[in-house]
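Q: Can someone sanity-check these two? First one:
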Amino acid sequence: MLNYFYPLIIAFFVALLVTPLVKRLAYKVKAVDKPAARKVHHKLMPRLGGLAICVGFWTAVLLTQELTMEIYALLGGGLLIILVGLRDDIKGVSPKTKLLVQVLAACIVLAAGVRVNFMTHPINGVIDLGYLGYPLTVLWIIGVTNAVNLIDGLDGLAAGVSAIAAVTLGIVSLIEGVTAMAFIPFILAASILGFLKYNFHPAQIFMGDTGSLFLGFNLATIAIIGLTKSATVISLFLPIVILGIPIMDTLFAIIRRYHNGKPIFCADKDHLHHRLLALGLSHRHTVLAIYGVSLLLGVSAVLMALVTTAQGMLIMVVTTLGVFIGAERVGILRGRDLKDAKHKKAYNTVAK
């Protein structure tokens, strides 16, 4: 039994012990986050925390796991992501450069044979994607990588949501029979939890792009390896449900900005965490509320993997409807005006 927990213990304690060292390094190289109009902190904060997550994760994987081509691809692509994240946190990197590095990282994954090979649907069963699987894999990895980056707006938010998603990926991988890869997301979650001690509100350090991009890339890649080998209809939807918070928040941002006639890449203060803060929740309660939604999505994904296809599709439909109703209620879809004076004041001072 100890052999199962050994990798998790290594990942957790390495991240836990390395984080204070990374904090000192961040101040030394001036990798600090300054207060700004869309941010919730009031002082300089070190932002290389993702490096501690990476060190914890890689140490446990390299010491305890069988190094297959898929694992090498995960580590190799992750190395590129970490390098561009470090550069961005210290000096700044243009969006085009970050995108290029993400494409290169995705190509490393493709070169190892990790890709979406088919899609499934209830009518004709399996559809072989052929060469179309290559661009779809790249788009999936880039999309999830940046989606996790977008939700990194509050202390502990991206880290906690990613940990919940990683644990869910591990559980569903075991259910789907992909046991060889199932422990990798558990190790990732353990390294996140080691870092989260310093990142939960009030945070002592931020993960920065180093962490959010690294987590997004790993979650996206692990989802392909662990959840796309089954030819069942429901397997197509499991990664989307598990990574529901970052994916839906990004999707709603696109819908909202299009509806309001704004550029899709224009930043705003109507993401889920902004809206919950504006509705009167405290910083800590906002993060915990989003954790709760992530847990519900995780439970839904596990149930979908356990039940029949028809039952799984029903759970998927109910979950999707619930997400859209909830999004409309808190104003994520339209970025609606807050007529209540108290809430309007909270909204206007969310990032001050």
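And here is the second, same format, sequence then tokens:
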Amino acid sequence: MFPIILGTARFGTYTSREDSFAVLDAFIEMGGGRLDTANNYACWHPEGIGGESETVLGEWLTTKERNSVEIMTKIGARSVDGFTYDKLDGLSPDNIKRSVDESLARLNTDHIDVLYAHVDDLDTPLLDSWKALSSLVEQGIVKQLGVSNYREPRLLELADVIKENQLTPFAYAQYRYSLITPNAIADFGPQVILNEHLFGALKALDCRPEIIGYSPLLDGAYEQSPDELPDDYDNLLNCALIEDIQVQAQQHHSSPSALILKTIFDYGITPVTAASSPERLRSNLQLLV
């Protein structure tokens, strides 16, 4: 299996349709095949409302053999007011059906390879959500299921609900993860950080999900001066770690980003990484292809 999943969150907003197509084509040429998106990408762009990434992927898919790639999308985290994450559309059975129908239309496909519950919905019983998601698998509309940003207690509760009711298990678990640790007061909203304890809990599950880490490169932070770390990661220890990573990358004749992705993969976590150009993509993946 190709060791990287291509993240497409910026396609159709920050990254133009033409550049998005170029990155997608380069990824396929390098041997990749798994593409990560969501129905709310990229609502945080000044002109984004969500769905732009799926739309670009759908247009690109019309030029390819559908079964040559795996489309991994997510539902349940669209902002109700369009501006904040205070209230999300959630994972009620009605919204699951509506969201999947809309994603299928944008993606120009009759099935989704992997459908994630993007964030936990505390207002809908886990059983109700997972019955609806499992039904999609039974119908062949969705091939596999995944979870993203579920905190450990709810993750374990969900695993029990699935087992007790003989529902479709989740084959993927996706969390925010990079090699440096954010500050304790950092607030990532609905995003959940993959830590050592959560990693251990995931590895112990009977369903053995593939563990996936998003935002591994922190928007290029490893390529910059250690003095320019994002505020959520800005501390003396991380500055020292960045310096060490950059020295190691020089020794490997690679970019720091390439070393990060290789190290994360070697840990047993599949990184989701994005790029705005084929050149950047090849640089990031040079230690993995």
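A (reply): Looked at the second one. Strands lie at 5-7, 34-36, 70-75, 112-117, 142-148, 170-176, 210-214, 270-273. Residues 236-251 form the longest helix (16 residues).
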